[in-house]
Structure formats: C-alpha cells, structure tokens
Amino acid sequence: VSAQIPAVSRDLKELDVVIVGLGLMGASLAGALRGRCRAVRGIARRQETLQIASERGLVDEGTLHLESGVRDADVVVLATPVGVILSLLDEIGPLLPEGCIVVDMGSTKSQIVSRMERLPGHIQPLGGHPMCGKEVSGIEAAEPSIFNGCTFVLTPLKRTSDDTLSLVCALVAAVGANPLELDAQRHDRLVATISHLPYLLACALVRTAAHAAGEDATIWDVASSGFRDTSRLAASDVTMMLDILMTNQDAVLDALEICELQTRSLAGLIRSVDKDALRNMLTRIRAIRAEYD
Amino acid sequence: VSAQIPAVSRDLKELDVVIVGLGLMGASLAGALRGRCRAVRGIARRQETLQIASERGLVDEGTLHLESGVRDADVVVLATPVGVILSLLDEIGPLLPEGCIVVDMGSTKSQIVSRMERLPGHIQPLGGHPMCGKEVSGIEAAEPSIFNGCTFVLTPLKRTSDDTLSLVCALVAAVGANPLELDAQRHDRLVATISHLPYLLACALVRTAAHAAGEDATIWDVASSGFRDTSRLAASDVTMMLDILMTNQDAVLDALEICELQTRSLAGLIRSVDKDALRNMLTRIRAIRAEYD
C-alpha cells in the first residue's frame, strides 16, 4: 500500500479533533491521536463511556452533547455504526464551523459518501475506513495501537479539497496506518468479498454446526481451533454488521454467489472422486493463501 | 468432555511406544510421551526428520525401518495422513508381536476402523483422533503441549479389549488430552461439519478472493484479520486434507449442502431487506458462537 501524502498546510498540533462515538474504533482512534493534536474530544451517548475514556486517558475531554461538542472542531470523525453515521450526516452540517473537516470510519462507503454530498458547502467531507478491527466491540476493547500497519481507506468526494485529503492522510499516518485512496463504489465491492463474505461464511458455519448439534450435541466436544478461527467473525457486533449488509447489499450478494460457485466446484470434485483435479485445486488455493500471509 | 478411565493393568512406564510418522502430530505425541513410557521410538521416511526428532529430544530412538522399528513394540501409533495409514494397516500386521496395540491418529475413522478389522487376531487395534492441530505441518511445527486440554476421540472395534481401551485412555490422559469414546461413523459425521466444512469454506473464500483479485488486485491491500482468520485453514497440508475429503465424502457433501442452505437463507434476508428477521438471525448466531468460546 502506498499513497503520496502531499505537504500539509496545517500542523496536526493545531487541530481540535472531535470523535463522535467512543466504541472500539472511535476510542482507539482517540487514544492514538491524543497528544498528537491540540485536543481530542470524545462524544458518547452514555456517561459511563465518557468515564472509561477519561480513566484510560483516551480523550482530553468528553461530552454527551453533540452540538456543543462539535462547535469548535477542526476535524470531526464519525465513528458509529453506518446507520448512525447516515443519520448524523443529516443533522450535523449546521452545527459545524466554517471549513470543518468531516471524516467517518464506517465499513461501507457509497451511501455515506452520497449522504456527505448533501452537507452544507462550508464543510469539507471525506469518507474513511480503517481495515482493522476485532470481533469484540465497545470501548473496553479499545486499543490505540490497532491502526499500526493497517490500510486506512480514504474515499474523497469531488468537493474534497487537496488540503483536506492531505491533512487526513497525515492524521492517518500519525496513528501508524497507511492511507489508500479509493473510489467509494470500488471500496464497497472489494470489502464485500474480503470482509463481509468472511462474516457471512462464519455465520453459515455456526448455523450448520448448530443444526448438526441439534442431532448430536457431542459436536461441540470435537470442535477445535479450525472451527474457532473460521467462525470467529460470527461473534461480531450485530448492529454494525446489519448496517454493513444493508448498505452493501448488491456487492455482498454478488460475492455470496461467486463463493457458492467455488464451493460447488469443490463439491463437484469431491463427489466425482477426481483426486488429481482436487489436489491441483487445493494446492493452488494453498499457494494463494500462503502468499497472503 | 468426560470419559471413565478404567484401571490400567500395565504401568505406562513399562511400555515401548513406537510412532510411525514424525510429522506435526506424530512428533508432538512422541515428545509428549517421552519420559512417561519406557521408550518412545520414532519411524520416519527421511534421515533428516530423525535427526530433528533427536536434536529436539522428541524421541528416545529413531529408525527408517518399519520392520525392525515395530518388532518389540507394546503400542504402535500410526501418525501419517489417512491414505498412508490405510496402506500401513495392510502390511503391518505380520510385523507386530503378540498382543501389540495399534492405534492411529487419522482425521477420519470409518475406513481406518474397517481396515483395522482385517488385522491378524494377535493384534489389538483401536482408532484415535486428537481434536487439535495447526495449519502448518511437519516436525518443525511439533509441540508436545498441543494435546493439552484437547478432546482425543477413540473409536474402538468390537475386538478391542477393555484393557487396550483403558491403556490408550491412560496414554491420552498422560499427554493432557481428554479421551472421548465414539463410534467411527458418528465421529466422521461430526468432524465433517466441525472440521472439514471449515476447511472447504476457507478454500472457497480464498478462491472467491482470488477471483475478485483478478479484476482488482487492490483487494489484498484491504484484506484484514477477518479474512486472515476465516481463510487460515486453506493453508492446511494438501495431502492430509485430500485423504480426509476422499475418505469422508458423503458426510462432507452433506455438510456442504446444509451449509449452502444456511448461506442461502442469509442471502434471502439480505435480498429482501428484511432487517428485523436478519437481525434476529444474526443475534441467534452470535449467541451460539459466544457460548462456544
């Protein structure tokens, strides 16, 4: 992953960054940016979250109030599930100061970027998606080092200025991530296969195991690390995943269809006992997987 | 997992154990048993493997010769891929002393157990399968602690004596595993869903990603831990997996078919934008997965 980061007109140290949503990703970003910007403020729905954020030193300041929280922001980061990001984009415009940058961390980008188009002209919007995460959610799981070495996709709009893009690239680089500029539709197509499909396969595997367990519960006693790893994503936050699937339907359904063809071709070789062809296919697959690691 | 371990008539310290095949599982078992039995001997095809086994202190002795290697064994453990286990069972009988126990570590059991039926009457055969492993193979990956806390399935034959079963249970317990007695067909049915299906889903995922990469190679830059974990099993040893699939065809194809139905029902809810039903399903799946961990 490489991205040219143009010269930044403003020092990060001059920036007031406000993060809306202090879950796993928002709180991790807050902690990673804290000390690198003038101030990192967090906005959460619950007092308890603000208290944890403050106790763990993830934010300089926290508030429950969106309006006062974003009033003086240089950069606002929307770090909620995609559905809430879309709602926030409908209401946040008038609350933001002139030239304010709005970037998000949602897992799908097309709908978010088109909603960003509607923001008032004095706002500088930009889509974002860090390619990291855990299957656990919430501020308890926050980890400022989570961005280290990960790709951080940025999906600029036509109206996004070079200055905005370069400043956000600098913020992304400051937390250890590698910025990668992509068109929103292209992003959504890629993550449908590489991220949303794995989640759905994990879910289908868990349902198949539960189905088998209905006939013979001993199956859980013979489950091992293979099942654990392959099904891990099925433990992901449901609201987050639901929003993702509902805002990336077509690409997700395409990925599922292609995957079904692959599964069927494997099943066909098993059924026909075509050992040589199956060996060739499994060997090719293993080589591709080995290259990825 | 629980298993009643009957009193053992012989002390493990009196046993000469011979392990045929010093790959990941065989070498790990050798290392775990060494010091707990009178002697642990290893039989390998390559001198290099014997040297590593000896350097790493995994065996008391090693040899390349099956015939002389098993001549005085009390227990012979077949720890090769399933296909080689089947061939070994055809030739090993006449080489073994009176009362010798033959147990294997193959990942499918029905074909192995029926091949064991044909062993000469002076042999005591028993099927075995430790539910642990790694996607890496070979003696380099051996780890005597790998059996700690894992379920070790034992599939006795009608001719298997109680003494044999209890002695092997004691060996299994000695390496930290929990013995679980199962019928061979039942074992194969369970692992088709919980172990072989995850492998095939991982393979289908890698093929789908490779297909998408053919259109846009940037997909590898946005791959993250979700893809890595879900596809991990696709890096498994091909010969081992091929033997498994070819000796558990029917159960594997059944598991694939049920999984396809699960995937389709998820796709159906996504397609129909039935958000409530999808939320319910994903929530149930998440709860099942959470209970497993």
Layout of strands and helices, then pairs:
The structure is a homodimer of 293-residue chains.
Chain A: E1 16-20, H1 24-33, E2 39-43, H2 47-55, E3 61-63, H3 66-70, E4 75-78, H4 82-92, E5 101-104, H5 110-117, E6 124-130, E7 151-156, H6 162-174, E8 178-181, H7 184-215, H8 225-231, H9 238-246, H10 249-271, H11 275-292
Parallel strand pairs in A: 1-2, 1-4, 2-3, 4-5, 5-6, 7-8
Antiparallel strand pairs in A: 6-7
In short:
The structure is a homodimer of 293-residue chains. The first copy, chain A, has 11 helices and 8 strands. The longest helix of chain A is centred in the last third of the chain and has 32 residues, at 184-215.
Question: What attributes characterize this protein structure?
Answer:
homodimer; 293 residues; alpha/beta; 11 helices; 8 strands; 13% strand
Describe this structure in words.
2 copies of one chain form a homodimer. The first copy, chain A, is an alpha/beta fold and 293 residues long. In chain A, 49% of the residues lie in helices and 13% in strands. Chain A is built from 11 helices and 8 strands. The first copy, chain A, has an 8-stranded mixed β-sheet, with helices on both faces. In chain A, helix 4 packs parallel to helix 5 and helix 7 (184-215) crosses helix 10 (249-271). The longest helix of chain A has 32 residues, at 184-215. The two termini of chain A are 15 Å apart. The mean pLDDT of chain A is 95. At the A-B interface, helix 7, helix 8, helix 9, helix 10 and helix 11 of A face helix 7, helix 8, helix 9, helix 10 and helix 11 of B.
